[in-house]
Amino acid sequence: MKRIKTRMTIGIFSIFLVSFIVLMVNIGANQRIANNSQSLLKDNFPSVKYSFEMFKILNEINNDIIAPLSEMIGYESEDSVQVSTKLYLTDFEQNLNLQKNNITETGEQELTESLQKAFDRYKLSVLNTEYSNNYSAYYEKYRNLREYILSIHDLNVSELEQKNEDIKCSALRVLNIQEKLGIVALTLLSILIFLVPFLLLTPINKLSDRMITFYKTNFNKDIDIKSNHELEKLEEIFEKIVLETSKPDQKE
């Protein structure tokens, strides 16, 4: 009985172990993909968003400045332009501060510092209305600021594309590993599912065969077994042996 219990324990543990290994590999692989995907949203996407907002605000400021110079029809007074421009500058600075707190890539720190310096020069030029008497000097500061914004944007977009490609390659490798591991695990489980009942029932079947042999040898009778269930078959053989041994001796 101990051997049967041992075989049963080993069989169940083996099935559990194979299933556990497959589960852990799948969890680890999926977690790795999830972590790589998270880095896209946490590291690079915010910088792309901030740089896009700064670029958009810079265009709005420039439009406010260019409009009066171009004598656009229906444009508001210079005072109202200055108010809206100051609001845009504040919004720009807020996005710049957010960008300064989201440095994740090599070279991004230097670009952001240069962007801050370029913005300080541009802001001073705008507030001093340099554009009204020296537009070329103003435009140079505007162009310089725009280039730094685009550099930060392009750097993070490039990293996004590279990381996205890495995630795709990683996902394909994971899927390949999972496919191969799944085939191996399925094969092992199929073998175990076949072997466990065989290993458990072999001692019972051997015992049944020995008892049938004993019955035929000692009672000179064929034994008729009605059940196909291994334990019921063993029980039926045992009952027949007990019945035969309990009969009174026919010798007189």
Summarize the structure.
The protein is mostly helical and 252 residues long.
Protein model, in words:
There is one protein chain. The protein folds into two domains: 2-185, Four Helix Bundle (Hemerythrin (Met), subunit A); 194-246. With 252 residues, the chain is mainly α. It has five helices and no strands. It has helices spanning 2-69, 78-100, 108-127, 135-219, 230-246. Helices cover 85% and strands 0% of the residues.
Which features characterize this protein?
252 residues, mainly alpha, Four Helix Bundle (Hemerythrin (Met), subunit A), 5 helices, rod-shaped
Work out the helicity level.
over 70%
Number of domains: 2
Percentage of residues in strands: under 5%
Per CATH, the superfamily of the largest domain is: Lipoprotein, type 6
CATH level-3 fold name of the largest domain: Four Helix Bundle (Hemerythrin (Met), subunit A)
**Total of DSSP H or I helical runs spanning 4+ residues:** 5
User: Which class do the helix and strand fractions yield?
Assistant: mainly alpha
Ends apart, CA distance between termini:
42 Å
Architecture per CATH nomenclature, i.e. the level-2 architecture of the largest domain: Up-down Bundle
- What is the alpha-carbon Rg in Å? 42 Å
* Element-level helix/strand string: HHHHH
Residue ranges: pLDDT <50 for 5 or more in a row?
72-78
Question: What's the count of strands?
Answer: 0
The pLDDT mean sits at 79
Largest sheet: none
